[in-house]
Specification:
The complex is a heterodimer. Chain A is of the alpha/beta class. Chain A has a domain of 104 residues. Chain A contains 14 helices and 25 strands. A six-stranded mixed β-sheet of chain A has the order 10-3-2-14-22-21, sandwiched between helices. In chain A, strands 15, 17, 18, 19 and 20 form a five-stranded antiparallel β-sheet that branches. A four-stranded mixed β-sheet of chain A has the order 1-13-12-11, with no helix packed on it. In chain A, helix 1 runs parallel beside helix 6, helix 1 packs across helix 9 and helix 11 crosses helix 12. The radius of gyration of chain A is 23 Å and the shape is globular. The two termini of chain A are 46 Å apart. The mean pLDDT of chain A is 95. Chain B is α/β, with parallel strands linked by helices. Chain B has three domains: 187 residues, FAD/NAD(P)-binding domain; 133 residues, FAD/NAD(P)-binding domain; 89 residues, Immunoglobulin-like. In chain B, helix 1 packs parallel to helix 8. In chain B, 56% of the residues are buried. Classes of the chains: A alpha/beta, B alpha/beta. Chains A and B meet through strand 20, helix 10, strand 25 and helix 14 of A and strand 5, helix 3, helix 4, strand 9 and strand 13 of B. Chain A: It holds the Pfam family DAO. Chain A: This is Glycerol-3-phosphate dehydrogenase. Chain A: It comes from Candidatus Hakubella thermalkaliphila. Chain B: GO terms for molecular function: oxidoreductase activity.
């Protein structure tokens, strides 16, 4: 007995998996996406610098450079079709020592070789005129006008919702336990919820892609996590930046950057620490101190007194390094993606297109569907509506008149939409990623006692079963004594 | 076009808002409106089912809901209009308010406004507590709401960071509900809340409190499994070797309250970075004419009774303003925080106000002095008033009344300054 029968199984609901799901939904195919967490984009894709890179500093000639540069050109259209927050703000790569300043011409040449032609050198005065709050130690910088910011989880959710609207089936909270092959051909994927019959498997498991690759016995690499810690600053911190501020990169890391976010905060980070546990996303005293000290070299006014939260994300590091997208020779129907590192949020749509072409090359029949709908619309957030729009929205649905998140002004109507959308939110964090409820200054002090009860009511489950981020993260343990006696 | 015009609009129906509405009405304002975002009047008092309220105002020991009800009855008796489930989104300096409620957007014009939004709790994020980000980390007030309003326990085994009043009260409450409270840790060398709460909530229930300790790590992927505490040195830095793992499923935070002034800022009200609340004069008027502020939105009080008194003061003057549409006196004396004074309210004072009655100064010290001190009020370097305290601590607000007869001593002065001096 099969849980499901399909043509393609995509393993992993991160940025890359969601992009592939949406790409394949253009064709007359049945596709399934399997994700072990309770939501898409719950791991690497949600905790990063939230930047769409131009690829100006990618390794020249690499698949990574090719895909990042290609992806960058897709975003204007993609953001328009899928309606996710995305802004072309531009970056300043800032040198604060003479040695760093001397490295800039080389970086500019690298950008040219990567096909990023609009990068230009700026002198000290120009840099400080553009961003007056930067350190007066500035020697000069590189302007990279097309570097952009995005909400990475909203992007992944948007791609997933659009894929679902075009017929892709998503199994969330479902872990892949094995891949079945017979006579060198993929037959099925076993999961914690049952077996899915398929002739194609795409391994987009990111951090865990080595473990999935082992299931077909094709793993000549390993993946280790590199942790990056970040601060998010209050929207009203007494300093503002309009551009992404990048340090001069070192061989190991792009360094600690400061970036505006699409929601009006500043984001500061990351560290780059090689660790062992693929789920160890804790923040540390040392890491946070390193971020603050590093970023203060660029923006001296920055202070941890203005932070509202901190987080850590993991980038998958492949050994040996390098983006790798390959169709298997031994196991017909298996396509492995590995080494998609920190640039993966950016490259995801180009990786998806690359996978599409590769799959077709090795025999997947791709016949375009005439009824593919590329458009997905997000509700306009109450917080950004005009007075008239608010009045009109409340008239249609009174839930718009009930604010459940005091900091970000999120209404019950938006929470209900998040729960009842095609990729319905099932946890507090999933609602947060879709609505911003809980992302503000009070960090869930207000909405955190209201939304669990809305979730319980809408899902028809006891409130003790409502979680922060999936099974094991229940918010409440049970009724108080008096209630039990009643 | 505003759908509604009012004499006085009060935002918030906690102890400050209720008192302000009563005082405004009693002063003669006709249309007084309370806007409350919750479904009931009373603000946070509703979830404070412990006693300790009303000792000063009623000389009775009441629970929060009982205390609130006394004022709710008066509000209703006086014919104050109330709007529940209504959240104010915006205020203009011209005192136009925009609010929403179930199915409706409202625009209201007010002759005077009293800001009485209270305060909120500092979060984990503001403290940058390291570790994982599991379920099971709540502010004490969040836990209080889960238990007292919703009837649900947020955990079984607790560690508490910070020794604020809500934290101590919740520690005891959790014991009543059968939970284990492993420990409370406080980074400062003294208790954050009132001594009476320390005795009645911690000592009486054998809940250990460790001063000069903090939480340096949170463990657990999905749900809190343990926190790591450590002793801190005089610069609040963890002392290596003093780490201790406390197994627990919940970490409660009671690490300070912050006046909630997002709305005030929209109205152009200037805030004092030391208090987080508006700059006010002796009538509780802000820099924006006709906009008054009362209670924890101005600075965080020790007792609800004092918040009520602040509400009466602000409400009376808001009522007065609404009737006469007249800004108060321009003769303003600055009140300055001197030695060992963190801040003092009001920020400015009309010397002639003393002719109308005694005026109270409210202050907090910067550091504790566990010995008798003088609190000196000086005008142009000359002592105006002196009060003796047996000890002073930042957690306990000091109040000094300037009697009308002191009027002569401050007339002509440029500023008043308050300082705390050890008795020698």
């Amino acid at each position: 007995m099969y849980l499901w029968k399909t043509d393609v199984v995509i393993i992993g609901g991160g940025s890359v998996g969601c992009a592939i799901a949406r790409e394949l939904s253009r064709f007359q195919l049945k596709s399934v996406l399997v994700e072990k967490n309770e939501d898409v984009c719950a791991l690497t894709g949600k905790a990063n610098s939230a930047i769409i890179h131009t690829g100006f500093d990618a390794p020249v000639g690499s698949l990574e450079a090719k895909l990042v540069v290609a992806a960058r050109r897709m975003y204007d259209q993609l953001a328009q079709e899928l309606d996710f927050p995305y802004q072309v703000v531009g970056a300043l790569l800032v040198a604060v020592t003479k040695e760093q300043w001397q490295l800039l011409p080389e970086l500019q040449r690298k950008a040219l070789r990567n096909g990023v032609f609009d990068v230009h050198l700026l002198g000290r005065e120009r840099v400080l005129a553009i961003e007056p709050e930067l350190s007066d130690q500035v020697y000069g910088g590189l302007a990279i006008p097309r570097e952009s910011i995005v909400s990475p989880y909203e992007m992944a959710i948007a791609m997933a919702e659009n894929a679902i609207a075009n017929g892709v089936k998503f199994f969330l909270g479902t872990r892949v336990t094995g891949i079945e092959t017979t006579g060198g051909t993929v037959q099925a994927v076993s999961t914690t919820r049952g077996k899915i019959k398929t002739s194609w498997v795409i391994n987009a498991a990111g951090m865990y892609c080595d473990e999935v690759a082992q299931m077909v016995g094709e793993c000549d690499f390993t993946i280790t996590p590199r942790r990056g810690e970040f601060f998010i600053m209050d929207k009203e911190a007494p300093y503002k930046l309009r551009h992404i501020i990048l340090p001069v990169p070192t061989r190991i890391s792009k360094g600690i950057l400061i970036s505006p976010t699409v929601s009006g905060n500043l984001l500061v980070g990351p560290t780059a620490e090689d660790i062992e546990d693929k789920s160890d996303t804790r923040v540390t005293v040392a890491g946070l101190a390193q971020v603050m000290t590093g970023a203060q070299k660029l923006l001296p006014a920055l202070s941890s007194a203005h932070t509202i939260t901190q987080y850590a994300g993991l980038r998958p590091v492949r050994h040996p390094e390098g983006y790798t997208v390959e169709a298997s020779r031994q196991n017909r129907g298996y396509i492995g993606i590995s080494g998609v590192r920190s640039t993966g949020v950016t490259s995801a749509p180009a990786v998806a297109a690359y996978v599409r072409d590769l799959a077709e090359e090795v025999g997947l029949k791709l016949i375009p569907r005439s009824n593919f709908n590329p458009l997905r619309r997000q509700l306009k957030p109450f917080a950004s509506m005009t007075y008239q729009e608010r009045a009109a929205a409340i008239k249609v649905d009174p839930h718009w008149g009930h604010v459940v998140c005091r900091c970000e002004h999120v209404t019950e109507a938006e929470v209900l939409r998040a729960i009842h959308s095609p990729l319905g939110a099932r946890s507090l964090d999933a609602i947060k990623r879709r609505t911003r409820a809980g992302m503000g200054r009070c960090q869930g002090g207000f909405c955190g006692v209201r939304i669990p009860f809305i979730l319980a009511r809408e899902l028809g489950i006891p409130v003790e079963a409502v979680t922060k981020k999936g099974p094991g993260s229940e918010i409440l343990v049970g009724p108080i004594r008096g209630e039990m006696m009643r | 076009m505003p759908e509604k015009k009012c004499d006085v609009v009060v935002i918030g129906s906690g102890p400050a808002g209720l008192a302000a509405a009563i005082a405004a009405k009693e002063r003669g304002a006709e249309d007084v409106l309370i806007i409350e975002r919750g479904e009931e009047l009373g603000g946070i008092l509703i979830q404070c089912i412990h006693t300790g309220f009303g000792l000063e105002i009623f000389q009775e020991d009441l629970t929060g809901p009982e205390y609130a009800q006394r004022f709710i009855d008066r509000v209703e008796g006086l014919g104050v209009e109330t709007m529940l489930g209504t959240m104010v989104l915006d205020i203009t300096p011209a005192r136009r308010l925009y609010a929403i409620q179930w199915g409706r957007l409202l625009e209201i014009e007010a002759r005077a406004i009293v800001l009485a939004m209270g305060c909120r709790e500092r979060s984990r994020g503001a403290l940058a507590i390291p570790g994982t980000r599991p379920a099971g980390i709540y502010t004490a007030g969040t836990a209080q709401r889960f238990i007292e309003i919703e009837g649900y326990m947020p955990g079984e085994r607790f560690a508490i960071l910070g020794s604020g009043d809500i934290g101590m009260i919740m520690a005891r409450r959790l014991v009543f509900e059968g939970a284990r409270v492993e420990r409370m840790v406080e980074v400062l060398p003294y208790v954050g809340g009132l001594v009476r709460n320390y005795v009645q909530c911690l000592v009486d229930y054998d809940i250990p409190l460790q001063l000069q300790h903090t939480v340096i790590d949170v463990k657990g992927r999905d749900r809190v499994e343990a926190v790591v505490s450590a002793q801190v040195d005089d610069n609040f830095q963890p002392i290596p070797g003093s780490e201790e793992t406390i197994p627990c499923d919940t970490l409660l935070l009671s690490v300070g309250l912050i006046p909630e002034n997002e709305l005030s800022k929209k109205a152009g009200v200037e805030l004092d970075p030391l208090t987080g609340g508006p700059y006010v004069d002796e009538t509780m008027q802000t820099n924006v004419p006709g906009i008054f502020a009362a209670g924890n939105v101005v600075h965080v009080y020790d007792l609800a009774d004092w918040v009520t008194e602040a509400g009466y003061l602000a409400g009376r003057h808001a009522g007065e303003y609404a009737i006469h549409q007249r800004r108060g006196s321009e003769r303003k004396l600055r009140v300055i925080a001197g030695d060992n004074v963190h801040h003092v309210l009001p920020h400015v004072l009309d010397p002639l106000s003393l002719e109308r009655g005694p005026q109270e100064l409210q202050l907090r010290v910067q550091w504790p002095v566990e010995a008798p001190v003088w609190v000196n009020v000086e005008a142009n370097g000359k002592l105006v008033k002196r009060k003796t305290e047996r000890y002073v601590r930042p957690s306990e607000m000091i109040r000094i009344k300037l009697p009308p007869e002191d009027h002569g001593k401050i007339v002509g002065a440029k500023e008043l300054s308050v300082r705390v001096e050890e008795k020698s």
